[in-house]
Amino acid sequence: MLVVMRMDAKEEEIQGAVRKIEAHGLKAHPIPGAQRTAIGITGNIGIVEPVLFESLPGVLEVIQVSHPYKLVSREFKPETTVVEVGGVRIGGHDLVVIAGPCSVESYEQTLRIAKAVKEGGAHLLRGGAYKPRTSPYSFQGLGLEGLEILARVREELGLPVVSEALDIDVLDQVAEFSDMVQIGARNMQNYTLLKRAGRCGRPVLLKRGMNATVTELLLAAEYILDQGNDQVVLCERGIRTFADHTRNTLDVSAIPAVQRISHLPIIADPSHAAGQRDKVVALSRSSVAVGADGLMVEVHDAPEEALSDGNQALSPGMFVDLMVEIRNLAPVLDRGVPSRVGS
Ligand code: PEP
Ligand code: MN
């Protein structure tokens, strides 16, 4: 961090800033310039808040030289983290595809869709048991029963499962029944939930908030890593923009932006970005092309009857086509798509 003094700052103001920096246990390095003095700060273990020095007499501005995040950064860990979910590795050479219904609606529905996505080549099964719905009158998910269904289907098909923990009350339950705990877009800045996710003993799929910057996403992940859990996969799922031709705007640029800064793997969810099934395949291609480590897509075998997000659900046939396209695209990008997992 650099504290830049005003051109007319007096020597005593510079010394005052130095004393204040040292009072925080930090080292101050005054750098006199032709026009003004800047004071470099070193020795900080954690984050130093710029506000500590901004309002001191004679200070013009405080410039953050290093990033506010630490554990998630490539400075801290240069090589990409591989997150292991029930034997499936996310963040390595191979692309990973997570597919399934938005919501677990019944055992039969989940089993049918799980069989279809497994047949198509999905590596992980998704399905919400606790659903974050905009309206309190919409289907809220089957709760514990939904998690039991997912666990049963996992046993039968051998596909590891991902499911969302909506709050701290259900987080341990979700962690007990699923192989990966999803923190949804609406909860990306629920810091109590993030801390608990950091202690849940399961890999975490952290979705980008619809209004969150890349920095905010990385800081949210930092909360999880700070609790000792580095098994975190980030997910770009579309952000709010003025565009009204899709539900959200898939910010594909976030993928290389995150990868430049962070060692955490990042996947894309084109379903929640598009909101309409006819755009999901094209957005999947673009996500893989920019370097995503995988995809999460919603699939339903009777989308018109789905209890949530039917509009964006791919039919099983469309999912098979998507997998064919991704398999064709992967080698061009020096990636692979492993064959089906499980029994
Ligand atoms: C979901 O994955 O079902 C979901 C609700 O996603 P998001 O949190 O991105 O809206
Ligand atoms: Mn959904």
Task: Give the tally of β-strands.
Answer: 14
Helix content: 25-40%
Query: For this structure, what is the CATH class of the largest domain?
Result: Alpha Beta
Shape: elongated
Low-confidence stretches: none
Description:
The protein is of the alpha/beta class and 343 residues long. It folds into two domains: 2-63, Phospho-2-dehydro-3-deoxyheptonate aldolase, domain 1 (Alpha-Beta Plaits), CATH 3.30.70.1140; 83-333, TIM Barrel, CATH 3.20.20.70. Helix content is 33%, strand content 17%. The protein has eleven helices and 14 strands. It has helices spanning 11-23, 51-54, 107-120, 144-157, 168-177, 191-197, 214-226, 254-261, 270-274, 280-290, 316-329, and strands spanning 2-5, 27-32, 37-42, 59-63, 83-85, 88-90, 96-100, 124-126, 161-164, 180-183, 204-207, 232-236, 266-268, 294-298. Strands 13-12-11-10-9-8-7-14 form an eight-stranded parallel beta sheet. β11 (204-207), α7 (214-226) and β12 (232-236) form a beta-alpha-beta unit. It is elongated and about 75 Å long. The site of phosphoenolpyruvate has 9 residues, from loops.
Task: Reconstruct the topology from this structure.
Blueprint: E1 2-5, H1 11-23, E2 27-32, E3 37-42, H2 51-54, E4 59-63, E5 83-85, E6 88-90, E7 96-100, H3 107-120, E8 124-126, H4 144-157, E9 161-164, H5 168-177, E10 180-183, H6 191-197, E11 204-207, H7 214-226, E12 232-236, H8 254-261, E13 266-268, H9 270-274, H10 280-290, E14 294-298, H11 316-329
Parallel strand pairs: 7-8, 7-14, 8-9, 9-10, 10-11, 11-12, 12-13
Antiparallel strand pairs: 1-3, 1-4, 2-3, 5-6
Helix pairs in contact: 3-4, 3-11, 6-7, 10-11
Bound molecules: phosphoenolpyruvate and manganese (II) ion.
Manganese (II) ion is lined by residues 102, 272, 298, 308-309.
